[in-house]
Amino acid sequence: MPNEERQRERDLILSPNEFAFISDQTKGNINVYVGPYKASLSNTDQPITFNIQSKRFEKCSLESAIQTFAIAPEGWYLTLKNPAKDNVQPKTGTVNSHIDLSVGHKVNIPGPISFPLWGGQMVGVIKGHHLRSNQYLIVRVYDEKAAQENWNKGVIKTQAEIGGSHSFDSSKLTLGKQFIIKGTEVSFYIPPTGIEVVKDNSYEYIREAVTLERLEYCILLDENGNKRYVRGPEVVFPEPTEEFITDDYSIRKFKAIELSEIKGIYIKVIAPYTEDGKEYKEGDELFITGKDMMIYFPRKEHAIIKYDANNVHYAVAIPAGTARYVMNRLTGEVTLRRGPDMFLPDPRTEVIVRRILDPRQVSLWFPGNEKAKQINEELKKQATLAESEAGFISQAIASPSLPKQPSPSQTEISSEKISGDTFDRKNVYTPPRTITLDTKYKGAVAIDVWTGYAIMVVGKFKDRKVIVGPATYILEFDEYLEVFSLSTGNPKSDNNLLKDVYLRVLNNKVSDTFEVETKDLVKIQFKLSYRLNFTDDSNKWFNVENYVRFLTDRFRSVMSFHAKKFGVEELYKNAYSIISNIILGEDKKGYLFTENNMHIYDVEVFNIHILDNNIAKMMLDSEQAGIQQSTTIQRERSKLETLKFLESIKQESSQSEFITRDILSSLEKREVQKRSEVETTRFELEAKLKNLELEAELSEQEKKSLLFAKQIEDDKSKKDLELYFREKNYEIYLKELEAQVKAVAEKAKAITPDLISALQSFGDKELLQKMAEAMSPLAILGGESVAEVFGKLLAGTKLEGVFLNIGNDSLPKIIKKKD
Asked: Do residues 736 and 729 touch, judged by C-beta distance below 8 A?
């Protein structure tokens, strides 16, 4: 059994499409066993394989030695290295002795094909190359002679015809030459012997062309250093010596640059060319904006000048009331570009600069603005010794407005990827890469002058000028603000001078404390406050460097001179009027300083202090005594006036009561008289009734006569009865009249002064006669109202208007007595 197992292990059994290399260890020959085949190997037969990497035969087990045929189906091809000299491969079903090989040669064999290999041969199976219209192959000549001989044996199917040949001059096939097989011309390709397809960096045979849309372009770099720019729409196939330029993300196509009137691109001409009849020389610089062309495609004669990797230059927004400093790079002149404007500087000649202010200037020009100080310090730290061709440093602080202004804001610009020739330059002159919406800390220095203030602007080569608020002034690059000093403290002194640039020209106030000496050698201290304006010619306002000290010194001297004319008591008591007359003048027009047109229009005295305590105490005691005496007199005078007033009220009240009683008495008398008349009338009627009863006893004829007469009398009696009842109503009316009279009396009390005046006039005889007529019962019975009676009674007096206001309907008329 062991012998049989060992025998089976030495048996080589090959199926169809299999072969194996067996080495004869006694002779060194290598035989190729090709299936289907079975052989029993001797102890001197050694199975081996060919190592493609080391190019050596290596021993192996019998199972590992069995290999399959090299097979290429339809549409594939084999690349066979070291072919047999007679191009014969081992025969199937037998043992093939080793033959001579063309070592170092390689042939391409299109499928379908299948064959075993000789020992030392290497084969590669490659799929035929199917190309779309945007794909291509790079092929290389590795065997010039074989390529020329076998060029027409390659499998080439064109787009226009199937089975056609690709026209090519085979005489150009030189060793190492590369050329392009384009998908627009060839749809399928298998290279002939002598030609090989070159793999790309990804070890792929088929390469993708660049398909460009409209507004796209690509750049191809040749081995000789030349570049080729291709614009879309196009399918771009490189030449064999060209390669696509890519960006950092391996993108091979780029978008054209969109330009507008507020966007531009800075170009350096690197090769001379002519366009539209205009000649451009090498070294020329161009600034192309949307006014020149709206869409820009790079070209080989152009190199883009970039600042900090930014290709497109954007305009800067200059709102109304703001400005930017613009420097001419060729002359160094700095001008002011005012808004509103969308300013696109030409980088060839213009650059926007910023201004660094001195820390003292920042504190004076923008008091309390800590952010302005911080930005100014940061810009100073960032400032370098870098200078331009004109030798100018372009760092500066922008224009912070006065405090309580909004903080600046910016919008970032988008950066477009652009490839091609570029110049990278430092950012010293980089124009704004943002559309600035707020130039508070980016633009020119702007000074906001408040209402009632003024500034003086001084230029290094210009005349000075005064700006009066409310106004905003934008400084030229060489302009600055005039600084003046102010004495501080009270009394004013120069120990701690205040520096400022904003002069208050309206409703200014200056306080001061100083001493004067009276003619009786008593020292008095005054604390005054001056109100002043700056008027007329504004060019004089800044002529005095310290107007506070100038004002206080002048009035201290004037007051010291005039104080010698007054005694302490007079000056102390009349200080305000004396000081007002001295400073403002007797006409109160004020005091004008002609040196700087400072007009003092008012002065206030806050405090007067006698420095000698004894004299001050005497003056105080005297003043207090005078105040007490004056207060006592005033109090007694007030009491006397009160007593007089109360007495007059009592007298007027008594007179009113007397007059009222007199009127009521007159009314009562008239009422009694009227009642008497009514009684008389009633007695007369009763007598008449009795006479009628007696006459009723007369004869029948007489009775008829009397009946007729009686009827007449009855009618008359009825009328009399009506009169009677009317008189009854009159009694009711009298009661109402009495109530009204009382009401009139109350009203008369309320207007006592006028009533008294009217009653006093009753002394006239004519008025008494008039009163007698008006108050008579006949007038009342005559149908006149009480108001009319009193109206007649008081006609021409001060009470006439009182009773005229009483309506005629307020009292019923007295019933007239029937005739």
From this structure: no
The CA-atom distances, in angstroms, between 750 and each of 364, 644, 653, 654 are 75, 20, 9, 13
Task: Please give the average per-residue pLDDT across 136-151, as a whole number.
Answer: 92
DSSP state of 521: S
Place of tokens 């950092």: 248
Q: Say how many C-beta atoms besides its own lie within 10 A of residue 375's C-beta.
A: 20
Do the Cβ atoms of 322 and 474 come closer than 8 Å?
Answer: yes
Q: Which two tokens stand for residue 609?
A: 């202090």
Q: Which three-class secondary structure string do you get for 399-463?
A: CCCCCCCCCCCCCECCCCCCCCCEEEECHHHCCCCECCCCCCCCCCCEEEECCCEEEEEEECCCC
Say how far residue 506 (Cα) sits from the centre of its chain: 32
CA dist 519 and 569 (Å) reads 11
Q: What is the CA radius of gyration of the chain?
A: 67
Is the CB of residue 515 less than 8 Å from the CB of residue 609? no
Q: What is the pLDDT of residue 542?
A: 92
Q: Tell me how far apart the alpha carbons of residues 473 and 462 are, in angstroms, rounded to a whole number.
A: 16
pLDDT digits (tens, 9 = 90+) for 457-499: 998 777 789 999 899 888 888 888 999 999 998 888 888 899 9
Q: Supply the mean pLDDT for the chain.
A: 79
Using the structure block, give the residue that is written with the tokens 């009396």.
745
- CB of 18 within 8 A of CB of 117? no
pLDDT digits 0-9 by tens, 231-268: 999 999 999 899 999 988 889 999 999 999 999 999 99
pTM > 0.85: yes or no: no
